[in-house]
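Hi, here's the filled form for the chain we discussed.

Project: internal
Contact: R.S.
Residues: 160
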Amino acid sequence: GTTPDQLKVIVAAIDDLVNRIKTNKDCADLLGGQEKALKALRDSTISVEPLKAEVIIPTSGSRAGQMIFGRVIVGETAGKTIKLGSNTIFAPDGRISAINIATGQPVEVLTKPADINEVGETLAHETAHRTKSKGIIQDDNNQTNNDENNARVRKACGYN
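And the returned structure, exactly as it came back:
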């Protein structure tokens, strides 16, 4: 379930995103147009649940203990549901629970706790998938496409 603190961040992020869609034409256009984006956001169910988090942290050699790859999913869309990661974007104390692909063992990766901008950016990214916007790469299951989509959302919607 969603905690009261997570709910506060989600509500504030939605309010902020709605304002960006209404006042920033580039943002609205990237998300499929103002009307379509607002409808998709309004009709979405937002859930907080565990999402995939994989990293490669070698246990030996010159890069032992250093993360050299990370695929940490902070949000994903399934139908009308936008999922936010309880173990990633909302990781307790900024400690992401991941699997070290090199060993198959669980590992913690430190990050910053979620804030309104990070959650809003994620909601914007997933809203673009919900509207099937031509402004983003719809198949972003690889890190390169996902990073490109994040950059497009940050630029158009003004997220830092």
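Let me know if anything looks off before we file it.
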